[in-house]
Design a protein that fits this description.
Elements: E1 6-9, H1 20-33, E2 37-40, H2 48-58, E3 61-66, H3 69-74, H4 76-86, E4 90-93, H5 104-123, E5 127-131, E6 139-140, E7 143-144, H6 145-151, E8 159-163, H7 164-169, H8 174-180, E9 187-190, E10 192-195, E11 201-204, H9 213-222, E12 227-230, H10 239-253
Helix pairs in contact: 1-2, 8-9
């Protein structure tokens, strides 16, 4: 992994991305820390042209986005239009809101729509990924439903955007999941798994938790990963301090 492949998921900084003015200030801070790429998610209603202009002015690549799940499935053309405006190739279905993984009809409809949306994005020169949480580790047909989602869709239509925290939280092995998605993992969320003094799990800065990122990154690279995207859903203090800590750890210990 090269430092130029490390991005920040702006959902981490969502409270600082709600207006164009705030987004510009955030972009400047992100670039000053050292990041050269961002994934757009959780930002306010800022026109795509303005997002592109701000990122270009700061020397930031928009490497990926998250788009609303229902919009990806049911308004695919609008998602394609947005991605083209952002000059961005990768997006991901972010969360299975309203999906009952114990209902086979619901699961089959989801995978059918994901495959169809992914095919349409592929035809437009774009790539659809699936961003997992822990819920996808409920069993479906004897295995985690996440396995079925990938088995029931075509690799060319749906790739993985593995989230390292949630894979571990769900009981999966992150290194093994990187291996499972060999050739199907263009981006990954680097999110560390820690514990509070009350023995509760928590999101933490890269290197401050328990996940073996050296092994994770090595296996993700074998699977063709292009973007290693830092994300921390919540932070103990100023999120800019947390993303700086993660970046500094990655720079010191994980890049080649």
């Amino acid at each position: 992994m090269k430092l130029s492949q490390v991005a920040i998921q702006l959902f981490t900084l969502r409270q600082h991305c709600q207006t164009a003015t705030d987004f510009a200030a955030t972009a400047a801070k992100v670039r000053a820390i050292g990041y050269t790429a961002v994934q757009i998610s959780g930002a306010g209603p800022i026109p795509e042209a303005e997002l592109v202009s701000i990122c270009r002015n700061e020397g930031l690549t928009i490497c990926a986005t998250h788009e609303p799940g229902a919009k990806i499935l049911d308004e695919t053309e609008a998602v394609i239009e947005r991605l083209h405006k952002l000059n961005c190739r990768l997006t991901a279905y972010p969360f299975p809101a309203g999906i009952d993984f114990t209902d086979s009809a619901v699961v089959e409809t989801l995978v059918r729509k994901l495959d169809a949306a992914g095919a349409r994005l592929r035809e437009a020169g774009l790539v659809l990924g699936y961003h997992n949480h822990g819920i996808e580790f409920v069993k479906y047909k004897g295995a985690p439903v996440l396995e079925y989602i990938y088995a029931a869709t075509r690799p060319e239509n749906l790739v993985g955007e593995l989230d390292t925290f949630w894979i571990h939280y769900g009981g999966g092995d992150v290194v093994d999941w990187c291996r499972k998605l060999r050739g199907r993992l263009p981006f990954i969320h680097l999110k560390d798994y820690g514990f509070t003094k009350e023995n509760k799990h928590c999101f933490c800065e890269i290197g401050a938790g328990t996940l073996p990122f050296d092994r994770i990154i090595a296996e993700a690279e074998k699977s063709g990963c292009e973007w290693f995207i830092v994300e921390q859903d919540t932070t103990p203090g100023d999120p800019f301090d947390s993303i700086r800590q993660s970046y500094d750890y990655i720079r010191a210990h994980l890049v080649s």
